[in-house]
Every structure is written in structure tokens, then in C-alpha cells.
Amino acid sequence: MNQHVRFSVPPRFMNDTELRAYFGLSERALNRLRCTPTFPRKDKLTNRTDRRAVDLYFDRRAGIVSSASGDIPVAAIDGEENFDD
Q1: Sign of the dihedral defined by the CA atoms of residues 41, 46, 48, 52, in that order
Q2: What is the pTM (predicted TM-score) of this model?
């Protein structure tokens, strides 16, 4: 029995090398993204970047809205019925 279990879940916080490999970015591309005001910053304590924040950044950039981000209302405002149209 194998006592060493490996999980395929990527780490939550990544250094630049891991971030580039995970997202398929070149060093130049990551440096350019870091210059934009909306790209997630490195955590000052760990000196790593939150992978989930970068996922959300790319989702928003691609027009994909995440319900976890609070961009989607839980319930829509009811409107007037128009069944006879």
C-alpha cells in the first residue's frame, strides 16, 4: 500500500515560476501583467501570489463572471409579466 498520497490540487499561493507554468505565461507576459493596476499583487508576508485571485482576474478579463465574486445577484428583481406577448 502506498503511504505517500499526492494530490493534484495546485497550491493556493504560487511563486512567479509556478504562476507562469500554471497559467502558461512567459516571464515577459507576467511582468507586463504585474504592471497593470488590476492584476493581483504578491502577498507581502509570503511573497507569493494568490492563484485564485489570478484565476478571477483572467475570468473577468475574458468576460466570465464568477458567482463567488459577488458579481451575480442571488435573486433577480421581479418584473412585469408578459405572457401574452
Answers
A1: negative
A2: 0.68
CA-based nearest residue to 10, from 2, 39, 62, 21 = 21
CA quadruple 67, 70, 19, 35: dihedral, nearest 10: 140
Helix (H) or strand (E) holding 50: strand 49-50
Q: Is 49 exposed, middle or buried (0-12, 13-18, 19+ CB in 10 A)?
A: buried
Task: Give the SS3 label for residue 2.
Answer: coil
Residue range 52-64, pLDDT digits in tens: 999 999 999 999 9
Q: Measuring CA to CA, which residue among 8, 6, 15 is closest to residue 54?
A: 15
The domains of the chain are located at 13-67
Are 7 and 15 within 8 A, CB to CB?
Answer: no
